Amino acid sequence: MKAEDFTDPTAHWNTVYRTNTPDALSWTCTQPAVISGWLEQAALKSGQAVLEVGGGHSLLVDLLLERGCGPITVLDLSQTALEQAQIRLGEKGKAVRWQVGDITTTPLERDQYVLWHDRATFHFLTDAAARERYLERVRTAVQRGGHLMLSTFAPDGPEKCSGLPVQRYSAKALLELFTPHFRLRAEKRELHHTPWGAVQPFTCVWLERVSTKDSLE
Ligand SMILES: C[S@@+](CC[C@H](N)C(=O)[O-])C[C@H]1O[C@@H](n2cnc3c(N)ncnc32)[C@H](O)[C@@H]1O
Hints:
seven-stranded mixed β-sheet, two-stranded antiparallel sheet, 9 strands, binds S-adenosylmethionine
């Protein structure tokens, strides 16, 4: 995998996507089994807004479209990745809102989303202040009764991804971060196989937004 600039995350990610095909990227996943099963169970209805955080050019948006979910927003630092996803989807991609932005600084409206999905983006937030800004945004933007589906490297997963350090999590550690605003619906360990056959353990959690006194402030 090629990349060049670690000091500018946007430049880094644009270079990664410009200079690598999907089969050269460790996170490429053609069958998101855990999330697929959870989406089935969550049974989202058409009209319920979904935010795919750090979606890159992942196939998750294809799955959401197939399931009739939406409106769908795919947000990512990398314009290059979002353009590649749009080319892949063609006409179908016109139903999606493609937003270039940093999830730790992008303003989000209160109760905007019924589903917030993030695979392998939250774990790049190794800085406590950035992580707190992410948590604030999740608490604000996910409606009561809405869903947060999050996948990060597990405690025995790789220490880096795309050349950048990551924070690895157990399900318990993730739950502690999001409590009391979310409760656990399900957790699963997933062994992701990279396109070249390496195994990367992920922690996946499905959390549900609950009402708390704090969150009504
Ligand atoms: C490892 S890739 C995972 C992509 C996709 N979720 C998947 O599973 O295939 C991480 C993605 O997060 C994006 N990203 C990293 N930091 C971000 C941030 N602060 N805000 C939004 N996107 C970010 C990157 O551009 C990249 O597309």
